[in-house]
């Protein structure tokens, strides 16, 4: 369960919110209807994961000489969705070429996407260079320091990574999210002691002043589940979905899957539906052998509008079909999954297994 949580924190999914009164008309008439419509429709299609359709709209927008920085950025996002990271990087580079000498918020946004495209394309050095360029201009950009440090860890440069992580914490000393992200990255690359130090320093310095929620989640990631349970129980009444999720995962770590499921269910029945919690409930039910309930939870999560857990939910749904012996449905779900996430190596291996069933 802890690995699932870490993976969720590492995932950086594209989320675009864009609305226009002419969108319904544009969807009916197709690209090229009127100037500026192509760009807005292309962005909407990226949100809908229709990447090929989006590229068609962006091409029309370029012919209409719409906002070219936005056009190239949109093309980059579409290529990212298609896992064509080489063309994505080229598009983001073109977008930056349209910028003014003084960088603005969109330039930083594009640079983050560019670094991701480089990284996904196996060009880790280039990704590091982009993050360095960001921090040169904005020394207090904690996210760039953190991501640069993670890239350094991947290359085996532990000292350089630590220096970057220290800069991230220095930029936001009371941001416990960034410390947890650092811990998860360190754990992923076998540097557990380094990661733990960033959390233990909080307990040593602020342990008596931090909230029950923060004490609970830090204790959870450090593996002190008894303390995590005590603190998260106190935080649960006023806590959100993350507090419920971590409390449930704490009970799972302690071996009490029934109570963990009740924590998830109680929140979902009394609060706003949360896709990540449905996902966690499904995983808990899978581990407990209740595959029908697991499948229902994953499917309920997929029904939540605007969720950022779609990839995990789709994959776990097909796994539930496998456990239920419904291999035809699992194969169909796998085809749909790989159409959206073709570079998922774990899913590719699972697809080979399914072909033998």
TrEMBL record:
PROSITE patterns: PROKAR_LIPOPROTEIN, TPR
Alphabetized UniProt keyword annotations: TPR repeat
Organism: Gallintestinimicrobium propionicum
Protein name as annotated: Tetratricopeptide repeat protein
The keyword Flavoprotein is annotated on this UniProt entry: no
Coiled coil regions, renumbered to chain: none
TPR repeat intervals: 69-102, 108-141, 142-175, 275-308
Pfam families the record matches: TPR_16, TPR_6, TPR_8
Gene3D superfamilies named in the record: Tetratricopeptide repeat domain
Domain of life: Bacteria
């Amino acid at each position: 369960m802890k690995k699932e949580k870490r993976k969720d924190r590492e995932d950086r999914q594209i989320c675009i919110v864009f609305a226009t009164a002419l969108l319904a008309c544009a969807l009916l008439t197709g690209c090229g209807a009127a100037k500026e419509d192509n760009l807005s429709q292309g962005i909407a299609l990226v949100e809908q994961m229709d990447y090929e359709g989006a590229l068609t709209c962006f091409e029309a927008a370029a012919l209409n000489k719409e906002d070219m920085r936005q056009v190239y950025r949109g093309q980059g996002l579409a290529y990212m969705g298609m896992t064509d990271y080489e063309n994505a990087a080229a598009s983001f580079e073109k977008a930056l070429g349209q910028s003014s000498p003084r960088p603005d918020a969109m330039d930083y946004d594009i640079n983050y996407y560019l670094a991701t495209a480089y990284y996904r394309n196996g060009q880790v050095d280039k990704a590091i260079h982009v993050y360095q360029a960001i921090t040169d201009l904005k020394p207090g950009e904690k996210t760039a320091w953190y991501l640069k440090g993670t890239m350094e860890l991947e290359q085996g440069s532990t000292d350089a990574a630590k220096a970057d992580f220290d800069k991230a914490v220095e930029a936001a000393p009371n941001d416990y999210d960034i410390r947890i992200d650092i811990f998860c990255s360190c754990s992923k690359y076998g540097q557990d002691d380094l990661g733990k130090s960033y959390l233990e320093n909080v307990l040593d310095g602020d342990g008596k002043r931090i909230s029950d929620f923060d004490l609970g989640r830090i204790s959870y990631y450090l593996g002190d589940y008894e303390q995590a349970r005590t603190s998260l129980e106190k935080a649960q009444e006023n806590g959100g979905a993350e507090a419920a999720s971590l409390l449930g995962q704490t009970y799972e770590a302690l071996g009490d899957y029934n109570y963990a499921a009740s924590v998830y269910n109680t929140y979902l029945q009394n609060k706003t539906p949360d896709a990540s919690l449905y996902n966690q409930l499904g995983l808990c039910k899978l581990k407990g052998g209740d595959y029908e309930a697991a499948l229902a939870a994953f499917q309920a999560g997929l029904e939540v509008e605007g969720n950022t857990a779609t990839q995990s939910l789709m994959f776990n749904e097909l796994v539930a079909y496998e456990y239920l012996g419904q291999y035809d449905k699992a194969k169909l779900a796998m085809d749909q999954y790989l159409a959206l996430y073709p570079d998922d190596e774990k899913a590719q291996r699972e697809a080979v297994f399914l072909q033998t069933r």
